[in-house]
Structures are given as C-alpha cells and as structure tokens.
Amino acid sequence: MKPGPGKCVHCLGKFQKRNWDHVFPKSWYPDTTPNNIEKWKIPTCKLCNDAYGKLEDDLLQRLGLCIDPDAQASSGITRKALRALDPAYAKGQKDKRLRKARREKLLREVRSGEDVSTENIYPGFEEKWGRPANEQRAIPLPAKSLRKLAEKITRGIFYIEDKKYIEHPYKIEFYALRDSDTEPVVELLEKHGKMYARGPGIVVQRVVAPEDGISSIFGITVWDQFRMYVSVMKEDE
C-alpha cells in the first residue's frame, strides 16, 4: 500500500501521491542479508524516487567493480554490477542498447597507471593487493552522488527513528575522511552513538544532541568497505 498524501522526506514538498523509497538501495543488500531483516522505507515523491533510482544504479555499477567480491558484507554485489552492464542479460533491444552504452561510458572513464592520483582515491578503496601502479585501475565516483546518498540515508534514519524531517535552518554536510582523521569522530560515535544495522550490508551510527534532537553526527559504513561521515547542524553554526 502506498503512503498516501503528505511530505516527501527528501525534497520536503507536499504531494497528494507518494511512493515508498528504500533508505538503503534495495539492490545494494548483499546475498548474506538475513531474510527477516526489515528493509527501511520512507515516503517520497515520484520525482525524488526516480532521481535516486538512477543515481543508485550508477553508483552500484561503479562501486561494485571496486570492492572485494568475496567479502561476506558485499557478497553478490560485484555480480550485480557486472550483470547490469552486460547486454546479454537485457530484457529487450532498448535495454540492450542502454546496458551497452553504460558499459562503454564506464570503460571510457577508467583510469590506469600514472593517471590514477593516490591523493584522490576515496578512503577505503586504496590498493590492497600490492599490484604495481601500471596494473592498477580506477573508476571515478561522482562526489555529488555520494553526497546525495549520504543525505538520503541521514534523512531516512531521522524519519524512521524520530518521524522528523530535516528542514531549514539545519543543513546536512557530507565528509570523506581518512582513518587518520576519524579518531575523534569515531570515539564520539562509539561512546555516545546508537547503531542501526541492516544485516552486513549497512551499519549506521548516530549521535544526536539532546538540546534540539536534530544536531547530530553520523558514521555510515557500506559493505564493511567504505565509510561516509555526515553532520547535521544549523547553518549559522
């Protein structure tokens, strides 16, 4: 059953018709996710739902080619990413053309050897197999897409846990931090935060200021291989 009239958790607009949107993309759950895990859903407008669907598909195809395919927390994800780019799995001619175009676009964006800047590698995706630089490959991750994903999960947790919308004057900020910079944040989350886990695929930690119930810090771990950090603060702070 659809959620009915009301506010979109993402854009905050009011709509007569809304859809359910998965906070953590449905296709991102690994094969090892327990069957009894409730997959978080929030009410959103169709426009936001469709936009996030495209963004999440693109990120899955990029991230899925960069993670450890044998890890329990990401089991089956790389296979999904490869399948989404393979015309052989198309449902029709149009789908076949789209898959082929996506694959060719991604291949054009792949960087290798000296074109890979180690300073710009997203934390957690550094070289793990000891390969020489000329054998390494890198796929660009759109910063805007990562910010939007972090924002979606943040808004979703607030709605599910507190039935709250994040509105002005509060602002969501996304951070990609290296391990050397995370100690004070991790310490805060471990000491005062609450954990939300949906199987091995996603773990979210949140600490909220009791003064207003919204100012907060999030640590979001996906597939136990990459992390996003988020703050929710008043814009004038």
Outline of the structure:
This protein has 237 residues and is an alpha+beta fold. The protein has five helices and eleven strands, in the order E-E-E-E-H-H-H-E-E-H-E-H-E-E-E-E.
Task: Set down the secondary structure blueprint.
Blueprint: E1 6-7, E2 14-15, E3 19-22, E4 41-44, H1 46-63, H2 77-84, H3 93-109, E5 111-112, E6 137-138, H4 143-162, E7 170-175, H5 183-192, E8 194-198, E9 202-208, E10 216-222, E11 226-234
Antiparallel strand pairs: 1-2, 3-4, 5-6, 7-11, 8-9, 9-10, 10-11
Describe the structure.
With 237 residues, the chain is an alpha+beta fold. It has two domains: 6-138, no CATH class; 169-234, no CATH class. It has five helices and eleven strands; from the N terminus they run ββββαααββαβαββββ. It has helices at residues 46-63, 77-84, 93-109, 143-162, 183-192, and strands spanning 6-7, 14-15, 19-22, 41-44, 111-112, 137-138, 170-175, 194-198, 202-208, 216-222, 226-234. The strands form four sheets. It has a five-stranded antiparallel sheet with strand order 7-11-10-9-8, with helices on both faces. A two-stranded antiparallel ribbon has the order 1-2. The termini are far apart. The model has no long low-confidence stretch (mean pLDDT 94).
Radius of gyration over all CA atoms, rounded: 19 Å
Overall structural domain count: 2
Give the proportion of residues in helices: 25-40%
Number of strands: 11
Percent strand equals 15-25%
Helix and strand sequence: EEEEHHHEEHEHEEEE
Mean pLDDT across every amino acid position: 94
Structural class: alpha+beta
> Main sheet?
5 strands, antiparallel
Helix count? 5
Low-confidence stretches: none
